[in-house]
Amino acid sequence: HMHSLLMKVLLERLVADQESALRRANALGWASSDNQYVLVIYDQRDAVFDRKARIVSETLQHILPYSRWVLYDNRLVFFLPHKPDAWQPLREYLQVNQLCGALSDTFARLLDIRFAYLQALRAFEIGTRLQPESRLYLYTDYLFQHLGQVLQTHSMLTPFCHPVVERIAAYDREHHSELLPTLRAYLQYVEQPAKAAKTLFIHKNTLFYRIGRIRELFGLDLSSGYERARLLLTLAFRDL
User: From 147's CA, which of 55, 123, 137, 173 has a CA 20 to 30 Å away?
Assistant: First the structure.
């Protein structure tokens, strides 16, 4: 009960300062680190999660050692003192039980739990729209989309986009090619071309051929980190 109470007051920002938060967490024996996370679990089938929240939480605490949890706003919210060693057991549990999870970015201060919780909510909102078949959504996968949503409240996104992306999309439509998905996979795994090719279900040589065509047709300098970052940002904005 005391663990849940501390989680709730942290989520509602009712703790005065970081020192107070640490003192209370230490008194309860919480593990902590400089790389902490918030995991939010959703039950999309049942509007009233509390009937099985304890069963789910007890099982997940075996999968997520040293975690703490609270039922908050009809969601199970976990504080993780470190990233899980393996994601597969969590994904399998979520799949079997028809649950979904969303993970925040890393944070170091207990006072930032609320901010991390909101990141997880945003990851779930964007992730379920873009990848509804998935069971676990990581905020780091949707950071650029979130940035685009924030920008949209103040400005048009077009001035921030790389103009070549729409040209590649038009080329794909005209020639029934897959250059833009290839570029996205390549940028996502720029130092792991075999992994990029695997996500596209193509051979690595085919990946290199397509990237060569992109360079040749559109004059992109993919050795430039700035160019790659702007392309990734533009591709994320196109998802919105």
Answer: 173
Question: Which residues are 145's β-sheet partners?
Answer: none
Separation CA 234–CA 211 (nearest Å): 18
Residue 189 three-state SS:
coil
Closest CA to 232 of 197, 174, 175, 189: 189
Query: How many whole angstroms separate alpha carbon 125 and alpha carbon 106?
Result: 19
List of residues 6+ apart from 198 with CB closer than 8 A? none
pLDDT digits (tens, 9 = 90+) for 174-204: 999 999 999 999 999 999 999 999 999 999 9
- Beta pairing partners, 39: 78, 103
d(CA 117, CA 121): 6
106-119 tens-digit pLDDT = 999 999 999 999 99
